[in-house]
UniProtKB/TrEMBL annotation:
Belongs to the complex I LYR family. This is NADH dehydrogenase [ubiquinone] 1 beta subcomplex subunit 9. It holds the Pfam family Complex1_LYR. Keywords: Acetylation, Electron transport, Membrane, Mitochondrion, Mitochondrion inner membrane, Phosphoprotein, Respiratory chain, Transport. GO terms for biological process: mitochondrial electron transport, NADH to ubiquinone. It comes from the Eukaryota. It comes from Octopus vulgaris (Common octopus). It is a peripheral membrane protein. GO terms for cellular component: mitochondrial inner membrane. Mammalian complex I is composed of 45 different subunits. InterPro entries: Complex1_LYR_dom, Complex1_LYR_NDUFB9_LYRM3, NDUFB9.
Length: 143
């Protein structure tokens, strides 16, 4: 969930995101033609550089809002998405199994990886000791 916005963005961060989203739009539009994509990317950069030293905050805010509006109007119907990013075809496909699943293995299965399970037992013991030092021993008689 690292892609969720949890804090207020500064003006500079908004401008950088607008520029990056503009480049992503170029990639969606001209992704197969590298020369065409590079041409439009250079023109986009020139537009941003043209106003990079704007000192009037109202004007800068208007430019940012106009850029966001233009980006919204020119959305691609099928934007390019990286496979493992949210919305990509592989996002959330790989199931992350919890560690306790390895405790259910039979001794014959564990015998196939003796070094790994020996090291794992040491790490589990260390983890339990750290937990007990920090929070105290757990009582199984609490019920």
């Amino acid at each position: 969930m690292s892609y969720l916005q949890t804090q207020t963005l500064s003006h500079a961060q908004k401008v950088r995101r607008l520029y990056k989203n503009g480049l992503r739009l170029m990639q969606s539009m001209y992704g197969t033609d590298r020369v065409e994509m590079r041409y439009w990317s250079v023109l986009l950069r020139a537009k941003f550089d043209e106003h990079k030293n704007e000192i009037d905050f109202r004007k800068a805010k208007e430019l940012l809002m106009a850029g966001e509006q233009k980006l919204w109007e020119n959305q691609h119907p099928q934007p390019y998405l990286y496979a493992h990013s949210p919305g990509g075809i592989c996002y959330g496909r790989e199931v992350k199994l919890p560690d306790w699943i390895l405790d259910t293995w039979t001794p014959q299965e564990k015998a196939q990886y003796p070094e790994y399970f020996a090291r794992r037992e040491i790490r589990k013991r260390e983890y339990i000791e750290r937990w007990e030092n920090k929070y105290g021993k757990t009582s199984n008689d609490a019920h």
